[in-house]
Amino acid sequence: MTRYLLRRLAAVAGVLLVICAVTFAVFYVLPSDPAAHACGKTCTPEQVALVRTQMGLDRPVYEQFGGYVAGIFTGRTLGDGPAALECSVPCFGYSYQNALPVWDLLTDRLPVSVSLALGAAVLWLAGGLAVGLVAALRRGTTLDRSLMAATLASASAPVYFTAMMLLLVLVQRLEWLPYPDYRPISEGPAAWAGNLLLPWMTLASLYAAMYARLTRASMIETMAEPYIRTARAKGLYERTVVTKHGLRSALTPIVTIFGMDLGGLLAGAVITEHVFGLPGVGQLTYDAIFKADQPVVLGVTLLAAFFITLANLGVDLVYAVIDPRVRYA
Amino acid sequence: MILRVRDLRVAFPAGTAVDGIGFDLDRGRTLGVVGESGSGKSVSSLAIMGLHREAAVSGSIVFDGEELVGAPASRLRELRGRRMAMVFQDPLSSLHPFYTVGEQIAEAYRLHLRASRRVARERAVEMLAEVGIPEPRRRAGEHPHRFSGGMRQRVMIAMALSCEPDLLIADEPTTALDVTVQAQILELIKRIQQDRGIAVMLITHDLGVVARVADEVLVMYGGRTVEHAPVREIFRAPRHPYTQGLLASAPRLTAGSAEGSPDPAAGGAAGPAAGGRLRAIPGSPPSLLAPPPGCRFHPRCARYAATPEDACVTEAPELREFRGPLEIHEIREIHTGRALRPVGPEGAPAGPVHRTACHLTGTLGGPR
Amino acid sequence: MTGAPPTRPDGAPGTVPDAAPDAGRRSTPLLSVRDLRMTFGKRNGVRAVDGVTFDVWPGETLGLVGESGCGKSTTGRMIVRLLEPTGGTVVFDGRDITRLGPRDMRPFRRDIQMIFQDPFASLNPRQTVERIVSGPTRLLDRRGVIELLEMVGLGAEHADRYPHEFSGGQAQRIGIARALASRPRLIVCDEPVSALDVSIQAQIVNLLADLQRELDLAYLFIAHDLSVVRHVCDRVAVMYLGRVVEIGSRDAVYTAPAHPYTRALLSAVPVPDPEVELVRERIVLPGDPPSPADPPPGCSFNPRCAMARDVCRAEAPPLEIHGPGEREVACHFAG
């Protein structure tokens, strides 16, 4: 088991390195001049040249890449002389436009995105599984059909539309909720959750709809398995048959999707954060793309890749726990 | 009498799968139910277990004096696994892949006998030992995919027997298994039945399996019973053209037994070649959606082809009793629920009767 | 049955000589399999087929029987080259076809056809029967297809239908018609009747026998049902764990089985006669067939064999001639 884990972690590191290289290559092959963007519109050509040296853009690509990777583990000094910038471990580059190391920007924004993703995940799992389960067990009834129609509508509504509708109804008209204004959890869980409720609902409505459909399909398939008939033939309560024998099997495909979805969201829900003005990684990404702040975009990409590969590893480990056939394979 | 079935009908939205079957089953006896796909044999057994969810079950199923048709679902659940248990065809897909076999065997025992986790686990180990699984204590902690096909079927049997049921229904229990393993499982079912004196309903398409383990045989065709007799009678003197056709069409393992007429053309060209033609039944089993009118077998029936009679097309033949080759007695009791077995001269019960449902059997009599 | 087999549309004479038995042709086997091997996986490979040798003569039926995992289907698949053998040779009509490339193999693919167990799985559900039977290379025109359909007991009215409109027995007839389209000389039948109802099995068995007689076909008949095999085969090979343990004429194998496994196998088959069942001697083998991934040393049957001695655990017995009927047995204590 330990050896398996180590092997998988090594694979994660490999994947990250490849993603890093690809992203790096894409950005530094683009025709725009990162130095000019980094410096700003008012820079003189001399200032741009200085920034270019600081960023190491005058050196060959592989050297730049080597320096970037090394910086993650050892930290680095960008440029030299009085204009030199200290970028401490782990150095994911420096955002000249924000005048901060990328790592500091990320760690600053991460709690917002994590709060958003985790809260939404709880809501969509609870809602999606419940709706899917009810629909599967009442398959073919009016209830099933209406639930599935609702999920279809919910899944196809764009996030900004859902967000606007929720704002309009819950904040403007009914005034049940305040306009979202992010508060860290350190200021009290009530303030934290209250202000995040609307973004959570927005994000969850999209995912819950997909999870409901997935759960329904998976559950219908599982309940047709011969071992479900065996469970009934043993005289088990229908409740036990559904939960212990049915749901446990039906959940395995959902675990996979959930890992990927959560991994992706941890690195920021761009549109949701933007719509609600939440200062998360998604918002940072949005700004960075608009301002062509390439060190930040690179950092965010790596962060997303890290979360997704890690989530994948988590999924595989969970799989080994639920499905013994995987364990022995 | 542990099980008494009368005029059992199972109707699905798409069509009627079982159309009025009836039989009795005693403790210590094995009833073989034979039929091809679509004959309704499995559907009947699921109806007895109360496992149909989208079908209308009517008629009467009396289990140990208690009517099950129309009984509340909660009562059926109490009986399932406790007093009647079932073994299915494919032991791998019938076992849950995520739980150890010990857990799966213990589950019903804990529920029905309110046993503690530890006691139930001991029971599981004991049952595994009883069905002949070596190192039962260790194997109880393993998952089904670690077992061979035959061992999985033993696990299924252990699971079915854990609460000491009175009735065991085995639906094609050896069809998915190899011949040598099939022999083991049949021996096991036989031994357990004798040791415990339970009633066994064995559903199969294999006439050989029936000949090996059954006391009585019910032959089903198109959702109806066509013949019901003690096992020796069915094989020695089959009366229904379908039963006769089935027996004649099956190739034999040993020379000299009743086999198709040797074909001289085959003998010449290929030396001691294929042993002649088999006497196949023409056509295919009927569809549930559009069963033929009258006797469901008449479109394939050799006897009907030889001496067609209107009744075969217009009227469903009733199951009638035979006492002697040409004597026919109506069995009215089937529908009224009165004692089925004729009473012998001194009031002692006679053996099970030979009944068949064919308009033409009476006129032609005798087998073949 | 209708008359002559259909001719190919290209007008080329068929490869099969007229059905009149020709004594001279019988002197060479149609198919010779020598020491055929199939190992799956590289390291600690699973030896699914471990040195199988047999001949199939023109116009005869050789039965290949054994339990699941004995390698009988793998052997059949290697002969039609659905699998590439990892060792041994397959000689068809005097020519070694084991290492032929796709181009050189083409004529032999016409000569050697296969019928599968699940008739529906082997028919493309989106093609009409006419297209299925005429094959991807349009081997036959519509008239030829209809002739073939009539030959297998179907009719012209079936040509434009799709597989799902047929029953299992009819679908298997279509599979047989498709196999016949290229006028093969050998058909590998892989469990051709085991998915069918008992009453339908007999129809297909009879059809195969009729076709064999009319078209002078040879069959390699792979099956686990020993009663069916006895009925259709001239000779029988019994496989256990990737090897042939006994091969000989049908009567020799069925009436006087010499290998303890064959004896147990035959005695395990339930016979549809309760009176025979009552008195019949039955050898119930202990345990399961071992996995080819982990074969026992020596004779692979020794852990389940009542006769096993030390020599059985030490060396694998070779296949040797034993008694009349050209019967060969691989057992240290045959007889």
UniProtKB/TrEMBL annotation, chain A:
- Bilayer disposition of the protein: Multi-pass membrane protein
Q: Where is the ABC transmembrane type-1 domain?
A: 110-319
Which stretches are transmembrane?
9-30, 114-137, 149-170, 190-210, 254-276, 296-322
tRNA-binding: present as a keyword of the record?
A: no
Determine if Disulfide bond is one of this entry's keywords: no
- Could you give one GO CC term from the UniProt record? plasma membrane
Q: Which InterPro entries match?
A: BPD_transp_1_N (IPR045621), MetI-like (IPR000515), MetI-like_sf (IPR035906)
Fetch the CDD domains from UniProt: TM_PBP2
Gene Ontology BP terms: transmembrane transport
Q: Which UniProt keywords apply?
A: Cell membrane, Membrane, Transmembrane, Transmembrane helix, Transport
Q: Where in the cell is it found?
A: Cell membrane
Q: What family name appears in the similarity comment?
A: Belongs to the binding-protein-dependent transport system permease family.
Which PANTHER family does the entry link to?
DIPEPTIDE TRANSPORT SYSTEM PERMEASE PROTEIN DPPB-RELATED
Q: What is this protein called?
A: Peptide/nickel transport system permease protein
TrEMBL record, chain B:
Q: Topology versus the membrane, per the UniProt entry?
A: Peripheral membrane protein
* Compartments it resides in: Cell membrane
Enumerate the spans annotated as ABC transporter domain.
Answer: 3-247
Region annotated Disordered, chain positions: 254-284, 340-368
Any one GO molecular function term: ATP binding
Provide ranges: composition bias, Low complexity. Answer: 255-267, 342-353
Predominantly, its location class is membrane
The Gene Ontology CC terms held by the record are:
plasma membrane
The record's listing under CDD domains reads: ABC_NikE_OppD_transporters
Alphabetically ordered keywords of this record: ATP-binding, Cell membrane, Membrane, Nucleotide-binding, Transport
The parts of the chain that form a coiled coil are none
Pfam families to which the protein is assigned, alphabetical: ABC_tran (PF00005), oligo_HPY (PF08352)
Q: One of this protein's GO BP terms?
A: peptide transport
Transmembrane parts of this sequence: none
Q: What NCBIfam families does the database record attribute to this sequence? A: oligo_HPY
Family, per the entry? Belongs to the ABC transporter superfamily.
Could you identify this protein by its name? Peptide/nickel transport system ATP-binding protein
Lineage, broadest ranks: Bacteria, Bacillati, Actinomycetota, Actinomycetes, Streptosporangiales
TrEMBL record, chain C:
- Domain annotation ABC transporter: ranges: 31-266
Q: Which InterPro entries match?
A: AAA+_ATPase (IPR003593), ABC_transp_ATP-bind (IPR050319), ABC_transporter-like_ATP-bd (IPR003439), ABC_transporter-like_CS (IPR017871), Oligopep_ABC_C (IPR013563), P-loop_NTPase (IPR027417)
Q: Which is a GO BP term held by this UniProt record?
A: transmembrane transport
Example GO molecular function: ATP hydrolysis activity
Q: Which UniProt keywords apply?
A: ATP-binding, Nucleotide-binding, Transport
* Region entry Disordered, spans: 1-28
Q: Which family does it belong to?
A: Belongs to the ABC transporter superfamily.
Can you name this protein? Peptide/nickel transport system ATP-binding protein
Organism this protein belongs to: Streptosporangium sandarakinum
